[in-house]
Amino acid sequence: GNSVTQMEGPVTLSEEAFLTINCTYTATGYPSLFWYVQYPGEGLQLLLKATKADDKGSNKGFEATYRKETTSFHLEKGSVQVSDSAVYFCALISLNTGNQFYFGTGTSLTVIP
Amino acid sequence: EAQVTQNPRYLITVTGKKLTVTCSQNMNHEYMSWYRQDPGLGLRQIYYSMNVEVTDKGDVPEGYKVSRKEKRNFPLILESPSPNQTSLYFCASSFDLMNTEAFFGQGTRLTVV
């Protein structure tokens, strides 16, 4: 079946540090991959997406590359800011196994000045 | 403004008392879904709907019902709530599954005592 595995949190970084949040997946067929962000007290918002192998999604300085050979979609940012403090969710959907979204457990990021 | 609206935002109820959480979207989206968010488990899909009168079970449908009589509305019904349904619930909608973002409501914090 489909599943998403994210690195455990919480993660605490100093401002301007480099960020990596690991995400690996298991899926049949050719899933689309997403990163969503949840700020305190709010719903999830799409951060970036990739719909086929080798695609790179990017937004607000965040990037992730769809790696089919390693079944990974790691989130990176070169220089984090305090405003990036949030919970980040990796997710996938694959039409081959029904029309369901699968989310990782989320990684909490805190950026300190 | 494009949005998904959930009501209520907070609800405390007693075991066995039927309740409904409403969800409405103003974007003419076909796909709508309900999730619950629990610590350490991330988001798990409860039910989803591909269109009017078409609903399907997600990963954790037990104890929940949904209906999709109109395109814009997708209420979540708990016929006989139990304490293990205490959770944070999110409704989401999207135009399609693979390529466009899902828009999330702000969440409903439900406590069943």
Q: How many β-strand stretches of chain A? A: 12
Give the low-confidence spans of chain B.
none
User: How big is the Rg of chain B?
Assistant: 13 Å
Quaternary structure type: heterodimer
Radius of gyration of chain A: 14 Å
* Poorly predicted tracts of residues of chain A: none
Order of helices and strands of chain A: EEEEEEEEEEEE
| Element order of chain B: H for helix, E for strand | EEEEEEEEEEE
**Structural class of the helices, strands and pairings of chain B?**
mainly beta
Mean model confidence by pLDDT of chain A: 92
Q: In percent terms, what proportion of residues of chain B is strand?
A: over 45%
Helix content estimate of chain B: under 10%
What structural class do the secondary elements of chain A suggest?
mainly beta
Distance between the termini of chain B: 36 Å
Describe this structure in words.
The complex is a heterodimer of chains A (113) and B (113). Chain A has 113 residues and is mostly beta strands. Chain A contains no helices and twelve strands. In chain A, 0% of the residues lie in helices and 50% in strands. In chain A, a hairpin with a 7-residue loop joins strand 10 (86-93) and strand 11. Chain B is mainly beta and 113 residues long. Chain B is 0% helix and 50% strand. Chain B has strands spanning 4-7, 10-13, 19-25, 31-38, 42-51, 54-57, 65-66, 76-78, 87-94, 103-104, 108-112. Chains A and B meet through strand 5, strand 6, strand 10 and strand 11 of A and strand 4 and strand 5 of B.
How would you summarize what this structure contains?
With 113 residues, chain A is mostly beta strands. Chain A is 0% helix and 50% strand. In chain B, strands 2, 4, 5, 6, 9, 10 and 11 form a seven-stranded mixed β-sheet that branches. In chain B, strands 1-3-8-7 form a four-stranded antiparallel β-sheet, with no helix packed on it.
